[in-house]
Design brief:
Elements (H helix, E strand, L loop, with lengths): L11 H18 L1 H68 L2 H21 L7 H16 L4 H38 L1 H40 L2 H44 L4 E2 L2 E2 H23 L7 H4 L3 H43 L11 H19 L2 H51 L1 H29 L1
Helix pairs in contact: 2-6, 2-7, 2-12, 3-6, 4-5, 7-8, 7-10, 7-11, 7-12, 8-10, 8-11, 10-11
Length: about 475
């Protein structure tokens, strides 16, 4: 294709020079409107970006306020549930351990009364043995003194009688002491029961004191959440992020379990519904297997809601007690039936695999052999097919945590994205605001030759007018 812009085909350089001169002349003639257009375009773009940045910051503020409201609402609800559980535990402890306090008080009073009676019975009597000791010393002193034989014999008889009486009194004293020790020994079980009872009371009171301390700490956190302090916001944000990560990890593990469950029942479902039929781009057997798994997950959600472990469906939690119990048994029955169905499908899968293996051996001409312990994988697949539906039931717990935490995390991410977008819009606004001056300068740089000529011409005209003015001034003088 010929170059139509070349004026003289034999001299392209000269043609290019002519076009450059014409372009510079056109740009010089359109200099003022071009400057206005450049500045106006830059100003329009800068204002549009500045308004966009303002709108983005306003949206970020709304998202941040909404995220803060959702954060504190979820934290307040969680703390209310936790505090209610603590009060329920305290009430159960008081009902269980302190409801029998009157009977325990009577038991303590009876034990203390028995111990007091035993103590009174075991009170030590006044010891009379020192008087007998003095009498014996007096008798021995009288015998040692010189006296006539008749008096000595009488004193000796009195001394022996005194010693016999002393022995009898000593034996009686020991017998009474033994009886008192026996009474005190009999009081030991009462002491032990009293100590055990007091220890149980102390343990109960200590537990209640710890519960009260925990409730006080949780009430302090609840007050911070209600007040909307920054500390509570940071704590709740960190907790929401942790729940999001942990719940996401658990859901990923549950997804792998669901995939294993799907592999267990997909093959036998193809024999039941047909392997050649398709629903859209998927096999009908795969769709049927996914439907069974989804129904199991739904029944698990309803069961957890009926047990009031999760609160994804307020309607189920608001049911009256008889209806809620009926729903528990109905959902559990459906879940048990599906688990039995999956167990039978898993066994059917093992049979189909064995038939295919036997068919392959027959077609290859080899002898068909049966494994000695074929029942072990069959039993394992049946157990897995029965347990996995109940394992998927507990997906409701991390799912609830993930949903609640995702609202906070996604709101935080959206707020950060809007803030970054607003900063980018402001930066581009500043760039376009100064780009007008840069483009004007570049425009003038492209036509600097005629501008220099114009400047020189204007300068010469000004100098000529100045000379004429001076000449006119001197002529008038």
């Amino acid at each position: 294709m010929p170059n139509t812009w070349i004026i003289w085909p034999s001299q392209p350089a000269l043609s290019l020079l002519v076009w450059a001169v014409l372009a510079i002349a056109a740009m010089y003639l359109a200099r003022t409107p071009a400057h206005r257009a450049i500045r106006a375009s830059a100003r329009v773009l800068a204002n549009a970006l500045r308004l966009s940045a303002t709108a983005l910051m306003a949206a970020q503020e709304r998202v941040s306020k909404r995220n803060r409201a959702v954060l504190f609402s979820g934290g307040r609800e969680s703390m209310e549930r936790t505090i209610a559980q603590e009060f329920t535990r305290v009430s159960a402890t008081v009902t269980r351990d302190l409801a029998a306090y009157p009977a325990m008080h009577r038991n303590l009073s009876d034990q203390i009364t028995r111990i007091d009676e035993d103590y009174r019975e075991a009170t030590e009597e006044v010891d009379e043995l020192p008087s007998w000791s003095g009498a014996l010393k007096l008798a021995d002193g009288m015998i040692k003194k010189p006296a006539d034989p008749l008096t000595a014999g009488a004193l000796k008889g009195m001394a022996e009688g005194t010693r016999e009486a002393h022995k009898e009194a000593l034996c009686a004293y020991r017998e009474r002491t033994r009886e008192r020790h026996g009474i005190l020994r009999g009081a030991m079980p009462h002491w032990r029961r009293l100590a055990d009872t007091l220890k149980g009371v102390d343990k109960t009171i200590s537990g209640l004191d710890q519960r009260a301390f925990n409730i006080d700490q949780q009430m302090h956190r609840f007050e911070e959440i209600v007040a909307g302090t920054n500390r509570a916001e940071r704590t709740l944000s960190g907790s929401a992020l942790t729940q999001f990560v942990v719940a996401g990890l658990v859901l990923a593990i549950a997804g792998l379990g669901g995939f294993i469950n799907f592999q267990l029942i997909a093959l036998p479902m193809s024999e039941m519904v047909g392997a050649s039929s398709h629903l859209g781009g998927m096999k009908t057997s795969d769709v049927a297997a996914l439907v069974i798994i989804m129904v199991e997950v739904a029944m698990g959600l309803f069961l957890m809601e009926s047990l009031r472990i999760t609160r994804l469906f307020p309607v189920i939690g608001a049911l009256d007690e008889p209806m809620r119990k009926r729903m528990i048994w109905v959902t559990f029955g459906i879940l048990l039936t599906l688990a039995c169905v999956e167990s039978s499908l898993a066994y059917m899968r093992d049979l189909l695999a064995a038939d295919r293996e036997a068919l392959t051996q027959t077609l290859s001409g080899a002898a068909v052999t049966q494994a000695a312990f074929r029942w072990i994988p069959s039993l394992g697949q049946m157990v897995m097919g029965f347990i996995l539906p109940f394992a998927l039931t507990f997906v409701a717990i991390p799912l609830e945590s993930f949903i609640h935490a995702s609202r906070i995390v996604l709101g935080t991410v959206l707020s950060a994205a809007l803030r970054v977008a607003a900063f980018g819009a402001r930066f581009l606004s500043a760039v376009f605001h100064h780009a007008g001056s840069v483009l004007v300068t570049a425009y003038d740089l492209a036509i600097f030759v005629p501008l220099r000529v114009e400047t020189a011409f204007v300068t010469a005209q000004a100098a000529a007018r100045e000379r004429d003015r001076k000449k006119g001034f001197l002529g008038s003088k």
